[in-house]
Structure formats: C-alpha cells, structure tokens
Amino acid sequence: MDPKTKVAVLISGRGSNMEALIRAAQAPSCPFQIALVLANKPDAKGLEIAAEAGVEALCVDQKPFGKDREAHERAIDAALRERGVEVIALAGYMRILTPFLVDAWEGRMLNIHPSLLPKYPGLDTHARAIAAGDVEAGCTVHLVTAGVDEGPILGQAHVPILPDDDDHTLAARVLEQEHKLYAATLARFVSEQRIKA
Ligand code: GRF
C-alpha cells in the first residue's frame, strides 16, 4: 500500500486543531500522517502537545528574521521539504503569508477558519456573527490563496447561535465542530489528490 500523505501542521498557539489532526492520523485507515508540527513562536503551547504525542515539533522562530517575512517562510519551506512534506495544514497560524509560501504550496495548503466563509474573514468572527444577529455560525476549511481567508471552500460545519451566547460560548461550540471538520476534510482532500496523482 502507498505510504500515507505527509502533512505538516503550522501553528502559533494552543494547537487544539493540531491535536485533533494528530489523533485522527492515529487511525490505521487515516490516509494522512502528521510528519511535522511547526510553530513560528517558541512559546506555542501546541509544540509541547505534539512532542508528547510523539510527533516532531519544530519552532522556526520568526524573531531573528525581523520584518523579513519571506526569509522566515524560506526557512519554513526548507524545513518542510527536508522532511518530504506533501500538504500543509494551517491550524491557528497567526501570521499573514507572503506570496512566496502561498505560491510554493498552491493547491496543497489548507486552512481552518472559525466562520462560515465568505462571511467574516479575519478576526473576531464570533463576536461579529452575534452582533449581526445571525442565527447560525460555523467553520470552514479552505485552500489557501493570496487573499486572506478567500480560497476555494473544501468543507463547512454549521452550529446554531443561541439567544444567550457570547463570543466564548459560541467559540467553544464552533471549536468542537472544527476538530471534526478539519480531520474529515483533510482526509477527503488527500484521498482525492492521490486518485488524481
Ligand atoms: C481556531 O479557531 C481556528 O479556526 C483559527 O484559530 C483557532 C486556532 O485554535 N484559525 P487552536 O490553536 O487550533 O486551538
């Protein structure tokens, strides 16, 4: 049988989506493996969680690169290629990408966003959905393109917004769905890529 598709998860923080992907990858039938977890900051909590789960956890610290975001991304790209990574999953990676990384990984880089895109790209999605009087919210997995949170949508999950929700309660309800949606969408995506290959 073909080896599983090698996925790198890029994080900046707590890494709960990353953890969900690591757990999903442990199933024998899962078509992807998490080859690397990479953070842009040394204090990203998710690095510890990945290491504890036996996954290589690497920090390519953005600090020494200062404002040169492309140089930072070139270092990330080199680390990914050294490990034979085939697909990138952004999971709470809180740095806007330059065209260098976006172009280099076009069609092979996914992101999860906590809204029903195209509604509410950017930050504070839950507060904005509540303020708008929406009756539902959700999350989206999409391919990464040059426009922030604009790439082709691969999957969405919907949740209700309840009358007494605040952004924290809504975020928690959405996050639960994010964890399921990301693993399922990534599995489908890599399976489809293999059929095409
Ligand atoms: C998630 O809500 C994700 O949709 C967004 O950033 C958050 C990351 O959370 N892009 P975690 O680090 O996966 O827990």
From TrEMBL:
<keyword id="KW-0808">Transferase</keyword>
<feature type="binding site">
    <location>
        <begin position="15"/>
        <end position="17"/>
    </location>
    <ligand>
        <name>N(1)-(5-phospho-beta-D-ribosyl)glycinamide</name>
    </ligand>
</feature>
<dbReference type="InterPro" id="IPR004607">
    <property type="entry name" value="GART"/>
</dbReference>
<feature type="binding site">
    <location>
        <position position="69"/>
    </location>
    <ligand>
        <name>(6R)-10-formyltetrahydrofolate</name>
    </ligand>
</feature>
<comment type="function">
    <text>Catalyzes the transfer of a formyl group from 10-formyltetrahydrofolate to 5-phospho-ribosyl-glycinamide (GAR), producing 5-phospho-ribosyl-N-formylglycinamide (FGAR) and tetrahydrofolate.</text>
</comment>
<feature type="domain" description="Formyl transferase N-terminal">
    <location>
        <begin position="6"/>
        <end position="185"/>
    </location>
</feature>
<dbReference type="InterPro" id="IPR002376">
    <property type="entry name" value="Formyl_transf_N"/>
</dbReference>
<feature type="binding site">
    <location>
        <position position="111"/>
    </location>
    <ligand>
        <name>(6R)-10-formyltetrahydrofolate</name>
    </ligand>
</feature>
<feature type="binding site">
    <location>
        <begin position="94"/>
        <end position="97"/>
    </location>
    <ligand>
        <name>(6R)-10-formyltetrahydrofolate</name>
    </ligand>
</feature>
<dbReference type="Pfam" id="PF00551">
    <property type="entry name" value="Formyl_trans_N"/>
</dbReference>
<dbReference type="InterPro" id="IPR001555">
    <property type="entry name" value="GART_AS"/>
</dbReference>
<dbReference type="InterPro" id="IPR036477">
    <property type="entry name" value="Formyl_transf_N_sf"/>
</dbReference>
<feature type="site" description="Raises pKa of active site His">
    <location>
        <position position="149"/>
    </location>
</feature>
<comment type="pathway">
    <text>Purine metabolism; IMP biosynthesis via de novo pathway; N(2)-formyl-N(1)-(5-phospho-D-ribosyl)glycinamide from N(1)-(5-phospho-D-ribosyl)glycinamide (10-formyl THF route): step 1/1.</text>
</comment>
<dbReference type="GO" id="GO:0004644">
    <property type="term" value="F:phosphoribosylglycinamide formyltransferase activity"/>
</dbReference>
<keyword id="KW-0658">Purine biosynthesis</keyword>
<protein>
    <recommendedName>
        <fullName>Phosphoribosylglycinamide formyltransferase</fullName>
        <ecNumber>2.1.2.2</ecNumber>
    </recommendedName>
</protein>
<comment type="similarity">
    <text>Belongs to the GART family.</text>
</comment>
<feature type="active site" description="Proton donor">
    <location>
        <position position="113"/>
    </location>
</feature>
